[in-house]
Design a protein that fits this description.
The chain is mainly beta. It contains no helices and eleven strands. The radius of gyration is 13 Å and the shape is globular.
Length: 115
């Protein structure tokens, strides 16, 4: 069974940067879109950024101008570059791949923004 594995989370000071990466353990057929979601304590999971198979991107208003999502179709990999991080960006970040057969989720990587 294909699994998604995230990396790149950690502790960073406000104003700092992190790059999250996510790769699939095997091939995924018919990918619609790849994206990143996050869930902060006591809050619902929310979309951070998403990129379609044609390269169209959309971002949460809270991260526009600070985050960039990129994908590698061949390698089933998706990355999220996050700059100018704020304490309110603290959350567990989840990778997501939506395909014709099913929706895949990673186990999450913790991002903590604190001084």
């Amino acid at each position: 069974q294909v699994q998604l594995v995230e990396s790149g989370g950690g502790l960073v000071q406000p104003g700092g940067s992190l790059r999250l990466s996510c790769g699939a353990s095997g091939s995924i057929f018919g990918i619609y879109a790849m994206g990143w979601y996050r869930q902060a304590p006591g809050k619902q999971r929310e979309l951070v950024a998403r990129i379609s198979s044609s390269g169209i991107t959309n971002y949460a208003n809270s991260v526009k101008g600070r985050c960039t999502i990129t994908r590698d179709n061949a390698g089933n990999m998706v990355s999220l570059q996050m700059n100018s991080l704020k304490p309110e960006d603290t959350a567990v970040y989840y990778c997501n791949i939506d395909s014709v057969t099913r929706n895949y989720w990673g186990r999450g990587t913790q991002v903590t923004v604190s001084s």
